[in-house]
Known about the structure:
Order of helices and strands: HEEEHEHEHEEHHHHHEHEHHE
Shape: globular
Strand content: 15-25%
Structural class: alpha/beta
Strand order of the largest sheet: 1-2-4-3-5-6-8-9
Oligomer: single chain
Helix content: 25-40%
Amino acid sequence: MPHLRPFALLTTFVLLTLALTANAANKKIASQEGFITTPDGARLYFQKLGSGKPEVIVPLHQFLYDDFKSLGEKRTIVFYDVRDRGRSSHVKDLSTITLQQDVKDLETVRQHFQSDKVSLIGYSYVGMMVMVYTLEHPERVNRVVQLGPVAMKWDTEFPPEDDNRKDNDVVDGKAWNQLQELKKTGWDKQHPKDFCEKEFAVLRVRLVGDQAKASQLKSQCDFENEWPTSLEPHFGSLFGSIRKLSISRDAVAKLQQPVLTVHGRKDRNAPYGAGKEWATVLPNARLVTLPNAAHQSWIDEPRVVEMADRFLSGDWPAEAVKPSSVAAKTAAN
């Protein structure tokens, strides 16, 4: 019966389309996880997406993996926790908790995967760390994404409109004072995980520009390294090393790698002026300014992930511009 043939062809087409759609949905990105042991014995947790040698390396897995893992759909990428953070092993020797050691660990990660050249994504102080790595290993770096980076020098002062670090109005003062009373009694040491959760609930509002989005932030309190009792000595040593660090602006100005700097104007942790400074001094850098975003800018503005994807693919996001100047003042040592 010839009149049935078109129907049969249509049915076959529909079934084939459904099969192809199902296969695409079931296709998963190859994933590998484990630990990389550094020369001094620290174990760094990593998660690799894709096959082959990594094209992108991302420190601070615990903050970035869930929101940036989609970058692995187009390229091989490795997320890892820096030493003494997240799932990486606890490090007792605080003398090894320095930004300079983080740079060495990043090189250990690159060598582990035998990647000749990689792009880097650095969030917060790691936005500085990946640039120090680039200064030391320019031949190993393709592109760099900075997300809310700290300033090149610790004591740099920026104009009030470019620096929100003193903005604590969003924090519940009563709840914060209650935390301080708990610490006086030693409760934070007796119940470190519970105290971590309480502190996170109070301070998480500082990380977003839109306070309604604070609930989207994930607690890191499942990891002992992230408990305040562990983080306080960690940051004491780390930030002590950053205070002593002297990054040559002249050397930075000679780097040729394309750098995308993304910074929220409401950032209360790393001043917006710091992002503007990096993007001004770096000769091949552009800045994306997010007026309503804070430190975890991608929570306020999910398009940050799309911007990073476009940049890593070789193009600048439409929002990226070259700053004309930066106002900054460095205090005397």
